[in-house]
Amino acid sequence: MLLHVRRISSLSTLASVFLWAILLFFLFLIGAFTALAPELVVRLTPLIMVPVFFAVAAFSENKFDLSTKFVLNWLLIVLAILSLWPTYLILKIGSMPSIDGRRMVVLLSIFSLTYLVINRPILRKHFFGDSDPMTQLVSMLILGYIGLRYISLGDSLYPFYSFIVVTWDLVNYFSMYFLAISFLHHQKTSERFMAVMLWITFLIGCFVVLEKLQGINYLSAYAPRGGNLEAQAMMQSISRDRDGAFRAQGTFEHPIALAEYCAMGMCFFLASLLWNDGAKSRLIYLCAFIVSAGLIFASGSRSGLVCAGVGALLVFLLWAYRANSALNRAGSFTRKFLFLTTLVGILALAAPIISTLTQGRSTAERMSTLARSEMLVRGLPSIADNPFFGVGVGSAGQVAGHIGNGGIITLDNHYLGIAIESGVPATIVFILTLLIPALKASHVIISRAGPHSCFLAGAVGALSVLLIIRGTMWLSTNLTLGYLIAGIVMILSRIPAEGKIIPEAAQARGRPVAVT
Predict the structure, then answer these.
(1) Which of 98, 167, 280, 319 is the most buried (most CB within 10 A)?
(2) Do 483 and 457 touch, CB atoms closer than 8 A?
(3) pTM
(4) Is the pLDDT of residue 269 over 90?
């Protein structure tokens, strides 16, 4: 009992320190914005009410967890907006700030998270990882990556602009991991996620069919022009045609982003197809799998095809080597060894096909591959000269970017960009933030049976898609979804067969624990 009280008091102290750190950080932001952009501060004057908002939360403490209905509805809204709101559709009304649906839903979620974490002790416990070391490790890696990116602002040519870029990365992508580990402690999370992804894919499929038939994206006609959005509009028009074939983009700013999203969805649909017992459910998920594959072909993305193939292979092998009961250490090791051996063997056999797709099947595709190779050649010397902290955020395009049609500078390698701007350590930490959840999910599927093996297998494939395709593009649109998946994985991987969340550390010690 005394140990339990000490843990709670320690958690409360840590939470207080963290919340004070957040408050001081916001004060720093206000001071920086006031000095660098006085006009912007005037437009953000309504944010003065934010401290009052948080004070109300602090003085109206609620000891209960969130209801399942609230959490599942929040998940539905977030997934729908992140998938269906066109990334190129930024609404501009007069002199009002631009309205981007994806950013709006993320910002509202962050405000809700902050309020609820201050308001509810049980969510503060979830936010700090529930004493699960792996969840806390990923949280620390994300914070470490953000810290390294902020450190590299010191060498940036445009520090204020770079500060905005890094802060938006923090808001748009990494916040989703913390939202997931704080909110999504409910049994029906995986079911709701899979169902929403299913119907969203069908809706995107209908839109892409119209887009391919008409040869035009009608929603992009409403995309704003002028100012710093002109380059984005030009990039969209240039990327829509290859070898005389019209490339679909759906609700995404580029065909490759559509392919990335659909390849992630394919992994979940294949997992549902393999794990599901009902004939009707299998038929629906088979249709979704076929639609996703068709969307990837419609996008004309070679990277999407390769990533979808690798992700699907991982899901299939996890199903083949899944554990039907809890295995001891020797049995788990044997299955993991067989899994890796089979994976390497199949990839070796498929190497000629992957090589053909990578090198390109036409002149346009070969030129695209050549441009990516030239980016590496130009970028590696900069990394060698500045391996630890890079040369500053925002400099990767000038160092290794390729000037394409219309004079637009592109950098088609996320890892190369991070390494140039923030150094090799930042690149490694970024990879680990997605790789560790994928490895954790794989370990759970192979080592023991559980109620969420289907979702975890799909997540392994989806996170693998994200990690592989980062080497061929800089666009980060789907990272928001990726970190949401990573957070859900860290929660559901702690649920054994009886369907209760048990801290991993307590399981390892074999001691009785309280079930949350």
Answers:
(1) 319
(2) no
(3) 0.82
(4) yes
